[in-house]
């Protein structure tokens, strides 16, 4: 039942399955139809399901999300694509003041099962507004679920679960991992959407990450193993809610934690994790929780992004500092 496929292909197959299973599922966005999306994630879907199910929209992100809200009110399950991360901000008002609030505003009577797909993060040498990591901005808003897969199998199943959710889900897709391949079992029973997963067991320190940084943390663990250090790698998978129980269980075993994400460290999701785990694990920790991420600066031109993004050496440096306590 398992097939090796790229992360982008896994999302395509997941969308195809959802479109086939439920006539109320529609896919919308800029160039998602005839072009198949700039990353070809929706390639072939309009051809197979028609222009009324896979809809090419105007270049108007606020209108795209607003239309999806209207469709959801009429019983549809829209999946909208924001072409690049930095393009989401014209739709920010619709997402945070309407999409996130309608369930509470209606005292639970109205549900908005909308998935907002956002390719995010750097590493592809793109121009300005094409390499942002705005997940913390949305995680701060009550009423939204925020998830990010790190591999093809999670991409496939988390998309299925997001579409089936009656709550709005912001689905951050790590664009630099679109072409990474892994095994996908399309008949497997998935775990909960917001559950973290240990992808490598260790005893000396926990590396917690999500999306594009999980692969980097696995590479860090490999490098540390050559020096006799055993690092546990925890794929958080979800930024809101966060599986703090899984993080706590890991930290109680390893007694040290380094959180890694591409977004700036300042007011990033790692700050919330560090605060919560310090509260929960104060008597277990043998070092302060450390964070590795981007700098508190606008995303740089492509020729400088390697210096901006967390890399093997920066994460290993945090590991060294933690183990030095």
UniProtKB/TrEMBL annotation:
Keyword hit for Oxidoreductase: yes
CDD domains the UniProt entry points to: TPP_PYR_E1-PDHc-beta_like (cd07036)
Keywords: Oxidoreductase, Pyruvate
InterPro entries: THDP-binding, Transketo_C/PFOR_II, Transketolase-like_Pyr-bd, Transketolase_C
Classification via SUPFAM superfamilies: Thiamin diphosphate-binding fold (THDP-binding), TK C-terminal domain-like
GO molecular function: branched-chain 2-oxo acid dehydrogenase activity; magnesium ion binding
GO-annotated biological processes: branched-chain amino acid catabolic process; response to nutrient
EC number: 1.2.4.4
Pfam families: Transket_pyr (PF02779), Transketolase_C (PF02780)
Cofactor: thiamine diphosphate
Domain Transketolase-like pyrimidine-binding residues, every copy: 5-180
Signal sequence range: none
Protein name: 3-methyl-2-oxobutanoate dehydrogenase (2-methylpropanoyl-transferring)
């Amino acid at each position: 039942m398992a097939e090796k496929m790229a992360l982008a292909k896994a999302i395509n197959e997941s969308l195809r399955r959802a479109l086939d299973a439920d006539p109320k599922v529609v896919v919308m966005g800029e160039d998602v139809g005839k072009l198949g999306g700039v990353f070809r994630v929706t390639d072939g879907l309009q051809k197979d399901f028609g222009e009324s199910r896979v809809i090419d929209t105007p270049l108007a992100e606020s209108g795209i999300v607003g239309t999806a809200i209207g469709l959801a009110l009429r019983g549809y399950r829209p999946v909208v694509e924001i072409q690049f991360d930095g393009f989401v901000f014209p739709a920010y008002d619709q997402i945070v003041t309407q999409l996130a609030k309608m369930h509470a505003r209606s005292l639970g009577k109205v549900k908005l099962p909308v998935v907002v797909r956002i390719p995010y993060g750097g590493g592809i040498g793109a121009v300005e507004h094409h390499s942002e990591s705005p997940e913390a901005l949305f995680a701060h808003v009550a009423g939204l679920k925020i998830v990010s897969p790190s591999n093809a199998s999670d991409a496939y199943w988390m998309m299925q679960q997001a579409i089936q959710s009656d709550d709005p889900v912001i689905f951050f897709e790590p664009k630099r991992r679109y072409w990474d391949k892994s095994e996908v079992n399309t008949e497997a029973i998935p775990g909960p959407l917001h559950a973290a997963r240990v992808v490598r067991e260790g005893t000396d320190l926990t590396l917690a990450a999500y999306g594009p940084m999980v692969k980097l943390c696995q590479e860090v663990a490999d490098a540390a193993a050559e020096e006799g250090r055993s690092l546990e790698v925890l794929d958080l998978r979800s930024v809101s809610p966060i599986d703090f129980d899984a993080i706590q269980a890991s930290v109680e075993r390893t007694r040290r934690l380094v959180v890694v994400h591409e977004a700036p460290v300042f007011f990033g999701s790692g700050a919330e994790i560090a605060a919560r785990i310090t509260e929960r694990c104060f008597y277990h920790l043998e070092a302060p929780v450390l964070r590795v991420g981007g700098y508190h600066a606008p995303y740089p031109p492509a020729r400088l992004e390697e210096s901006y993004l967390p890399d093997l050496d920066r994460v290993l440096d945090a590991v060294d500092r933690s183990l030095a306590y």
